[in-house]
Amino acid sequence: MCCTCKAKLTKGKVNMKVNYGLEPDEIDAGYILSCQSHPVSDEIEVDFD
Questions:
Q1: Terminal CA-to-CA distance of the chain, rounded, Å?
Q2: Are 16 and 34 in contact (CB under 8 A)?
Q3: The pTM is what?
Q4: pLDDT tens for residues 6-27?
Q5: Which of 10, 14, 44, 46 makes the best surface tag, with the fewest CB within 10 Å?
Q6: Which residues, including other chains, have CB under 8 Å from residue 23's CB and lie 6 or more apart?
């Protein structure tokens, strides 16, 4: 995983298929790998900044 697609999930929930690039504290802070994330809520919002 290169983490180029790392983003902060600001709304909703996703299920990350694979996560080899994020540390546990980053996940706890709401970061996801967008290339590995599948929405599990009706609406999501992602911040790439």
A1: 19
A2: no
A3: 0.88
A4: 999 999 999 999 999 999 999 9
A5: 10
A6: none
